[in-house]
């Protein structure tokens, strides 16, 4: 197999697995936040702030995976 093909496959695996975790985390976070807001609507601003912060951290993991995939592909 050619080296470029191996690098492409490795990059696809890296971004695929690297995006899987954060996508599941964001889905769970949003679902639990909606449940919490449904139970206690007065706390919605505090819940929403915490949810957005947690989603930002989860997205950072996906960005790291993208960077790793790009390094694998082009280095």
Report on this structure.
- The chain has 75 residues and is mainly alpha-helical.
- Helix content is 91%, strand content 0%.
- It is built from two helices and no strands.
- It has helices at residues 3-39, 44-74.
- It is elongated and about 60 Å long.
Percent range for helical residues?
over 70%
Order of SSEs, N→C?
HH
C-alpha termini separation:
18 Å
Q: Which quaternary structure do these chains form?
A: single chain
Largest sheet properties: none
pLDDT under 50 segments (min length 5)? none
Specify the CATH homologous superfamily.
Answer: F1F0 ATP synthase subunit C
Number of helices: 2
The CATH class assignment is Mainly Alpha
Annotation keywords:
single chain, 75 residues, mainly alpha, F1FO ATP Synthase
Could you give a short description of this structure?
With 75 residues, this protein is mostly helical. Helices cover 91% and strands 0% of the residues.
């Amino acid at each position: 197999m050619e080296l470029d093909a191996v690098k492409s496959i490795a990059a696809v695996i890296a971004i695929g697995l690297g995006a899987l975790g954060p996508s599941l985390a964001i889905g769970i976070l949003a679902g639990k936040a909606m449940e919490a807001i449904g139970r206690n609507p007065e706390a919605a601003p505090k819940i929403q702030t915490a949810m957005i912060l947690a989603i930002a951290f989860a997205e950072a993991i996906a960005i790291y995976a993208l960077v790793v995939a790009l390094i694998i592909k082009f280095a």
